[in-house]
Amino acid sequence: MPDHPEPQLLRPARAVGIIGYGAYIPRYRLPAREIARIWTEGKGGLPIKEKAVPGPDEDTITIATEAARNALARAEINPADLRAVWVGSESHPYAVKPTGTIVAEAIGATPYTQAADWEFACKAGTEALVAAFGLVGSHMADYALAIGADTAQGRPGDALEYTAAAGGAAFVVGPAEESLAVLEATLSFVTDTPDFWRRAHQHYPEHGVRFTGEPAYFHHIGNAARAFLEATNTTAADYAYAVFHQPNTKFPQRMAKSLGFTAEQIEPGLLVPEIGNTYSGAALVGLTGVLDVAQPGDRILMVSFGSGAGADAMAFEVTEAILARRHAAPATRDYIRRRTEIDYATYVRWRGKLVMK
Amino acid sequence: MSDIVIAGIGMTPVGEHWATSLRELALEAIEKALHEAGGLKPQAVFVGNIHAPVLSRQANVGPLVADFAGFREVEAATVEAGGASGGMALRAAYLAVASGEVEAALAVGVEKATDVVGASVESATATMLDADYEAEQGVTPAVQAALIMQHYMQTYDVPREAFAAFPLLAHQNAVGNPYAMYRKAVRAAVYQRATMISDPLNLFDAAPLADGAAAVLVTRRDLLPPETAQPLVRIAGFGIANDTLAWHDRDDLLDFAAVRASVEAACRRAHCTPNDADFFELYDAFSVYVPLILEAAGFAPRGEGWKLGQDDTLTLDGRLPILTMGGLKARGNPGGATGLYQVAEAVLQLRGQAGDNQIPRARRGLVQCLSGPASLAVTTVLEAL
To answer: Against a cut of 0.90, is the pTM above it?
Structure first.
């Protein structure tokens, strides 16, 4: 492997943080055993319990909008003061015409705002978040909104069909003084690694099977996390919680263990067994799960992963302000508990997998 | 005539070498073998490889490897005989030296199974079967082995659990092999729960196709450089026999006749009997192959080969150690390189360099690779000098 230059830790010019956060998970659930019933006669291991499926009138835009409304409720700001509404997704409804403009208008953030879409597989949302920290951290703006949301499509019969799910999380970024969780720093690790991709006119993505493991997920999260810990002079023990990208249950558990994190540290942020992999939402929705229970003074490490490939590492310290504002919107667990089970036939119909003409 | 000896061996770890190319993998093994051989250079290079033309879009692997290793004006060719490619590459090297045509010949096996992922890899392995009458019907090597396993179990009333002994033994022995792909022992409960691949064959009944390269440099004993430090191992004899390619064409579906013929021929050449071998590196591509090989080689009566796994007969301490460094199941099965890994591992045993897996006083080893269910059997007898 080629030698890497020195790891680069990013810190904003002024202290910033998360002033509001919110998630949205669709209510429908397709159990993994139901997928196995159709494809493997019920045999074989299951990577998760069940996944969230969007209803017939839901998409990345509706998910992003509801998550954004929850984030704004906790942020307690005028949405017209947002200077960016950035949505990261791999299922933007349009290839050309941003999700961001629709969300921005729906939440009252137009017209003086940025609104381009972001894409970097499952880390599109955290890229938008890093940029939001930069926009606010440079004094160009006081408030910015970054969202990661997806309605991921799984190829029928493929291993990823068990986990490709729908959901999203939104973060209002603002000055540290107003924050529920203050940003410490970010560090990203990116290479050209084609582990998972979708060409423009393909319906379903393709992936490199075992190549998506060590050379992709573990290599990028591992490098980003280790570089971040070293650059910030911290170890796993310094954090109350850690959240990793969660394509299935085993990968983040293995990642956490290799970095020295305990099962307890990752538990509130490990939601994939119950909702599946929400792709651009995954690490961010996990972060909302942690923010729902974290206490003032807690430090949180989050490391996302996006195929293609790269990882964004960032850490936060929770403030006193979270105690009062946390309850202004539904907790992520409330969305997880709100559940209507569907069968494979209903899923196939709603996800547009039937040839209609 | 002077003994034909092994001047040097080299192996890469077996595994998923995403970042290493076919030619780099081969070079790694070659450099180790040449280093051991104290400056001896081959005049012929025979490369054992099965899948490069399909998986790496690279044919002409003999000249490719010879060039990348820096050899010039040498003979070079790929040797392909399915799973027995590595053994046949050694055969070619042996004949080149034994004939007097060259002074030293290099047999190097290399496989880069991970140049492609997914279903196309299994399609590629199916090309080793009879394309028109087996693969065309949907048969793959695993499916074929499953059919053999069903037939064996039904014919001899063999309990399903009996097959667990062979993969479990392989994994146990691989703990002591630093080149092995899987170095952890496996519990019986894990075998019972393993994913079904093709009824009744489960994930642990099939050796993993993987990446790896192994090189063996062959020369005449009187041509060895004085700097050679390794204890000497000679090639005492080869026995090679074919059978029908398609399994359904066999006269007797549960008789690996090619194994019998090749063991008899190799032992005749080496002036020994199979029982004179201190260990048997056999081709455990699928767990059902093991009892069939043991029966055909004369170590057990028909239908009873599976019983040898029920006690410690086949363990490192037993009277017939097999899979001494993990076999195909746990060391891994790097296609065209496998036959040369088996030879290299046998050489380590005979040199007394097998570490924790050393069979005490190992003097003679029986090494055998197969193409499929013994469509071709290549047996070599190696002896410590």
So the answer is: yes
